[in-house]
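Dear Dr. K.,

Following up on our conversation at the group meeting, I've run the structure prediction for DNA-binding transcriptional regulator, AcrR family from Actinokineospora alba. I'm pasting the input sequence below exactly as I used it, so you can double-check it against your construct before we proceed with anything downstream. Let me know if the numbering doesn't match what you have in your notebook.
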Amino acid sequence: MTSPDSASLLDLVTAATDTDAVGETILDAALAEMLDFGLRRTNVEVVAKRAGVSRATVYRRFETKDALVQAVLVRESRRFYTEIAEAVAALPTVAERLVEGFVVGVRHARTEPLMNRLLATDPEALLPYLTTHGYAVVAASRDFLVWQGEQVAGKLQPVENRDPAGVAEIFVRLAISFTLTPQTCIPFDTDDDIRRFATSYLAVLMREFDA
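The predicted structure tokens came back this morning:
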């Protein structure tokens, strides 16, 4: 799979879906296949059988296996961003939105079946997009968090040499780190634990942006 740049990735995962009902059925089947067999062993012919369509129908909508896999990952990422947006929608401050977005992000990464399956069975396929080639994911998530903050505070400007994008990126990089290396001396088992950590250590970086 090729890695999109951060702008195109954010556009992909926040755009409204244009997949029809048959396409959604194919994506459901592909997701089930990936959960059962991992990325490398996912077979387009089996996906077609699961979806109750022909291989030709799959390839008319998704030209290659890589395109099909990317479409599944984009849809799951869209669900992730939607979950964050819904969780923070009623919160009145930038700091609260960043804290709750951090909580939801860590929880989702811990419990999301596809990510955990790929980390277990296809780490060589997934890990580069969260580590050495992970900037597009980091930047897209960072820009999404900044955008969420701007929904309540307007255009965010640097405060005391702290750039809002830089602070949001710290949130994202920490969330990825805790996902990939969950063992820690910090109480981090429950949503309340994560929220206390984010409030104590991270929210202070954002409070000035609410002024």
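Two things stood out to me. The chain has a mean pLDDT of 88. Residues 41 and 184 are 33 Å apart (CA to CA).

Best regards,
J.T.
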